[in-house]
Amino acid sequence: MSENHFPQRVGNYWLGECLGSGYSGSIFKAHHVHSGQIVALKLQHVDVECPTNRYERGFYPSLQGGVGMPTLWQSGVEGEWDYLVIDLLGTSLDSLFRKRAKDVMDLRSVLCIAQQVISRLEFMHNRGILHRDIQLGNCVIGLRPFQHIIYMIDFGFSKRYIDPATNRHIPDSKAKRDFIGNYWFSSVGVHCRGRVPSRRDDLEAVALMLIHLLTPGGLSWTRNGVPKTDAAHDRLIREKRDARPEDLCRGLPPEFEDFLRYCRRLKFAERPDYQRWKNEFRELAVEKEYPDNDAFIWPPPNPETTVRVQAHPKPPATKSDEIERLLHGLVNLHVADRPVLGTRNINEVGAPPVQAAVKPIEKPKPLHEDTEGVIVISSDGENDSQKAPAAHRLPKATHLTQLARRVPDATDNVALAKVVREFVEFLKTSRSRTLTKEGFAVLDAVYKQLADPSVYVVPLRTSRRNNANESRENANAPLDARRAKMNKLFALRREVGQAKDNKTLARMVADFGTVIDQSNGRTITKDAFGFLDGLAAKLRAMS
Ligand SMILES: Nc1ncnc2c1ncn2[C@@H]1O[C@H](COP(=O)(O)OP(=O)(O)OP(=O)(O)O)[C@@H](O)[C@H]1O
């Protein structure tokens, strides 16, 4: 349909420049004939094959008032034109990304997109609506002063997943159905297996979109453009279906693979834990020392801090990769029952281990910093002559995970003191003061080793939902909460030297973990370091 056929005026609006055209209509900048208010007007001929304006109109009222949801100012049918008048918004993420000369988006921006888009879906889903067409072109930034907010647009494929008649979730079905969504980011379940879309699929699309932004050249099945034949579409479907999360996310912070796997494990009618994933991505941002908020700032401020991942498909494994994989496998191999530290008091400690344990093998340093699986952080500090020692330039998570794995083999207090000392030294040289989940895993392992290695212990780090409640409570008395944390850490630091046995130390480690877990930002303060230093010293003294 030629642009020349569009009317000059629709409803109370004069049409201006065309902002974009989709499958069944066009969007114009428009202004109100009386008030001059500038808006976006989505125009569709009433006879189009796919009358999405008609559907969209039905969803807007339920979405009004939500952050990042465009306001619907007017809608109707005039003559042969169906129109929606909504807020004029800014550029789509797709255009922003394409206009940029870089092949990947910076991690900070991607983490902001993750948090904001998950929030938008949480809002939509809470209103009983699925988006069903999550893609970069349907996420747009606001105009000043809302340029840091990402808006969701295009509800033409949306659907209510709560049946208004029964108030129940729509049923799953195995019946053959037409595909609704987009080629790039629609979930494997919906796109490749013909499943009925539900909340989990909106979220999986977000996961794929985030991974796409961080992958040079994008997800492999997006590289040949829109498939033009059935055969090309079938090939795309096969490629998407067969792509394993670990391959798609190789070299990315583990949160992205975890998120994709989480979405794929959700049951059809299950409510996703939006808060958990917003927290995961926020905490990753804090760990990377980005600002602790989700404001989308474009272009990214300098110096831009990026993670670069290896483009897929991965190159053939080199000899050193092979060796590294083998060694890594050996670290995880449990060939004998490991001796345990057990519950002991001062008089009992120091006995030699009853049985030789598998000696932990240090993961060899990567030969090249940009070797597969290693994140290279390019920032101002990259060429800094005061670089951290090479061992600390392993991804933080990997290093801490290795430490946690070594704890069960520390079968006497001297060995345990050595691991704790290494833990403290590592945390001290790390740029971030946040205790990550891998850091908590080290604490868990130390606690277990001190208390009773033979029983399962509840992880010290609680689920994010509890934590969110906690911070809400703390929001009423943030000063008190901070003071309580400082007092507790101060007391632990002071008392660790007086502990009489390993059980007491175990209790102190548990208290320590709980205080850090419940604090805002899970920061390791000076007293926290003091406690860990004291713990290492005490263990050595008790050997
Ligand atoms: N409110 C808005 N303000 C500014 N630009 C907009 C607005 N809504 C949409 N656009 C622009 O128009 C493009 C198409 O919009 P939209 O996706 O809503 O239309 P559509 O006809 O459903 O498109 P498609 O068929 O591609 O899904 C968007 O990618 C965006 O660039």
Could you explain how this protein is built, in words?
With 543 residues, the chain is an alpha+beta fold. It is built from 17 helices and 14 strands. The protein has a 6-stranded antiparallel β-sheet with strand order 1-2-3-4-6-5, with helices on one face. Helix 3 packs antiparallel against helix 9 (274-287) and helix 5 (199-214) packs antiparallel against helix 8. Bound molecules: adenosine-5'-triphosphate. Residues 13-282 form the Protein kinase domain. It comes from Somion occarium. This is Protein kinase domain-containing protein. Pfam families: Pkinase. ATP binds at residue 42.
Keywords:
single chain; alpha+beta; 6-stranded antiparallel β-sheet; 17 helices; 11% strand; binds adenosine-5'-triphosphate; CK1_Ser-Thr_kinase; Kinase-like_dom_sf
What percentage of residues falls in helices of 4 or more residues? 40-55%
Head-to-tail CA distance between termini:
83 Å
Strand arrangement, major sheet: 1-2-3-4-6-5
Could you say which small molecules are bound to this protein?
Answer: adenosine-5'-triphosphate
Question: How is the main sheet built?
Answer: 6 strands, antiparallel
Q: How many beta-strand runs?
A: 14
The Rg value, from CA coordinates, equals: 27 Å
Strand content bin: 5-15%
Q: Give the CA-based shape.
A: elongated
Instruction: Point out poorly predicted stretches.
Output: 313-393, 465-475
Derived structural class: alpha+beta
User: Number of helix segments?
Assistant: 17
The average pLDDT is 82
